[in-house]
Amino acid sequence: MQIERLLAVIFLVPLLVCLASCSSDSNENDDLYGLIVNDKIPTQLVDKENLPGWLAELVEKAETSAAQESASKRPSRIYQLSWNGKKYYMHYDAFNSFIFYDVYTEDGRHVEWDAYDSSDFNTRSKDWLCIYIISN
Fold it and tell me: What ranges do the domains of the chain cover?
Protein backbone atom coordinates (compact mmCIF):
# COMPACT_ATOMS: atom_id res chain seq x y z
CA MET A 1 0.00 0.00 0.00
CA GLN A 2 2.83 2.41 0.89
CA ILE A 3 4.63 1.69 -2.38
CA GLU A 4 1.46 2.31 -4.38
CA ARG A 5 0.99 5.70 -2.68
CA LEU A 6 4.61 6.62 -3.29
CA LEU A 7 4.36 5.66 -6.96
CA ALA A 8 1.12 7.62 -7.32
CA VAL A 9 2.77 10.71 -5.82
CA ILE A 10 5.85 10.29 -8.01
CA PHE A 11 3.73 10.20 -11.18
CA LEU A 12 0.91 12.58 -10.25
CA VAL A 13 2.94 15.52 -8.89
CA PRO A 14 5.01 16.05 -12.08
CA LEU A 15 1.86 15.66 -14.18
CA LEU A 16 -0.01 18.30 -12.16
CA VAL A 17 2.97 20.68 -12.29
CA CYS A 18 3.19 20.24 -16.05
CA LEU A 19 -0.53 20.86 -16.54
CA ALA A 20 -0.45 23.96 -14.35
CA SER A 21 2.52 25.43 -16.21
CA CYS A 22 0.89 24.81 -19.62
CA SER A 23 -2.08 27.06 -18.91
CA SER A 24 -3.00 29.26 -21.89
CA ASP A 25 -4.30 32.12 -19.73
CA SER A 26 -0.96 33.94 -19.73
CA ASN A 27 0.42 36.03 -22.60
CA GLU A 28 3.92 34.98 -21.53
CA ASN A 29 3.43 31.66 -23.30
CA ASP A 30 2.11 33.17 -26.54
CA ASP A 31 4.57 33.50 -29.39
CA LEU A 32 5.16 36.92 -30.91
CA TYR A 33 3.22 36.05 -34.07
CA GLY A 34 0.17 35.10 -32.00
CA LEU A 35 0.39 38.27 -29.91
CA ILE A 36 0.48 40.44 -33.03
CA VAL A 37 -2.18 38.62 -35.04
CA ASN A 38 -4.53 38.40 -32.06
CA ASP A 39 -3.95 42.07 -31.16
CA LYS A 40 -2.54 41.34 -27.68
CA ILE A 41 0.35 43.83 -27.81
CA PRO A 42 -0.10 46.68 -25.29
CA THR A 43 -1.37 49.92 -26.84
CA GLN A 44 0.00 53.39 -26.17
CA LEU A 45 -1.27 55.50 -29.07
CA VAL A 46 0.71 58.47 -30.36
CA ASP A 47 -0.66 61.35 -32.47
CA LYS A 48 0.57 61.27 -36.06
CA GLU A 49 2.20 64.67 -35.52
CA ASN A 50 4.43 63.14 -32.83
CA LEU A 51 5.72 60.29 -35.03
CA PRO A 52 9.11 60.62 -36.74
CA GLY A 53 8.65 62.37 -40.11
CA TRP A 54 9.38 59.31 -42.26
CA LEU A 55 6.93 57.23 -40.18
CA ALA A 56 4.20 59.89 -40.44
CA GLU A 57 4.63 59.72 -44.23
CA LEU A 58 4.31 55.92 -44.16
CA VAL A 59 1.15 56.24 -42.05
CA GLU A 60 -0.26 58.84 -44.47
CA LYS A 61 0.26 56.49 -47.44
CA ALA A 62 -1.26 53.56 -45.53
CA GLU A 63 -4.30 55.66 -44.54
CA THR A 64 -4.81 56.74 -48.16
CA SER A 65 -4.55 53.13 -49.30
CA ALA A 66 -6.96 51.97 -46.57
CA ALA A 67 -9.50 54.64 -47.58
CA GLN A 68 -9.34 53.43 -51.19
CA GLU A 69 -9.88 49.84 -50.06
CA SER A 70 -12.82 50.63 -47.79
CA ALA A 71 -14.44 47.25 -48.44
CA SER A 72 -11.62 45.36 -46.71
CA LYS A 73 -12.30 46.74 -43.20
CA ARG A 74 -8.92 45.61 -41.94
CA PRO A 75 -7.05 47.90 -39.59
CA SER A 76 -3.29 47.86 -39.75
CA ARG A 77 -1.05 48.87 -36.89
CA ILE A 78 2.28 50.55 -36.23
CA TYR A 79 4.41 49.03 -33.49
CA GLN A 80 7.43 50.41 -31.68
CA LEU A 81 9.87 47.93 -30.13
CA SER A 82 13.47 47.41 -29.17
CA TRP A 83 15.87 44.82 -30.51
CA ASN A 84 19.57 44.53 -29.67
CA GLY A 85 19.38 47.79 -27.74
CA LYS A 86 17.98 49.84 -30.67
CA LYS A 87 14.53 51.19 -31.45
CA TYR A 88 12.58 49.76 -34.41
CA TYR A 89 9.16 50.28 -35.91
CA MET A 90 6.93 47.77 -37.66
CA HIS A 91 3.90 48.29 -39.88
CA TYR A 92 1.65 45.25 -39.55
CA ASP A 93 -0.90 44.59 -42.26
CA ALA A 94 -2.76 41.27 -42.19
CA PHE A 95 -2.38 40.90 -45.97
CA ASN A 96 1.43 40.70 -45.88
CA SER A 97 2.56 37.11 -46.26
CA PHE A 98 5.61 37.67 -43.99
CA ILE A 99 4.64 39.26 -40.68
CA PHE A 100 7.98 41.06 -40.27
CA TYR A 101 8.03 42.42 -43.82
CA ASP A 102 7.65 46.11 -42.90
CA VAL A 103 10.22 46.60 -40.14
CA TYR A 104 12.21 49.83 -40.05
CA THR A 105 15.16 51.19 -38.12
CA GLU A 106 14.71 54.30 -36.01
CA ASP A 107 15.87 56.48 -38.93
CA GLY A 108 13.46 54.86 -41.41
CA ARG A 109 15.65 52.33 -43.21
CA HIS A 110 13.74 49.19 -44.23
CA VAL A 111 15.20 46.09 -42.56
CA GLU A 112 16.37 43.47 -45.07
CA TRP A 113 16.07 40.05 -43.47
CA ASP A 114 18.04 36.89 -43.67
CA ALA A 115 16.98 33.73 -41.82
CA TYR A 116 19.17 34.41 -38.77
CA ASP A 117 18.04 37.99 -38.26
CA SER A 118 14.31 37.32 -38.45
CA SER A 119 14.59 34.38 -36.06
CA ASP A 120 16.63 36.46 -33.62
CA PHE A 121 14.19 39.34 -33.99
CA ASN A 122 11.28 37.02 -33.27
CA THR A 123 12.83 35.67 -30.08
CA ARG A 124 14.78 38.67 -28.70
CA SER A 125 12.80 41.79 -29.61
CA LYS A 126 11.02 43.32 -26.62
CA ASP A 127 9.12 46.32 -25.27
CA TRP A 128 6.47 46.04 -27.99
CA LEU A 129 3.85 48.81 -28.10
CA CYS A 130 1.11 49.49 -30.61
CA ILE A 131 1.54 53.22 -31.18
CA TYR A 132 -0.81 53.88 -34.12
CA ILE A 133 -3.86 52.19 -35.63
CA ILE A 134 -4.71 52.76 -39.28
CA SER A 135 -8.33 52.03 -39.99
CA ASN A 136 -10.57 52.67 -42.97
Answer: 30-134
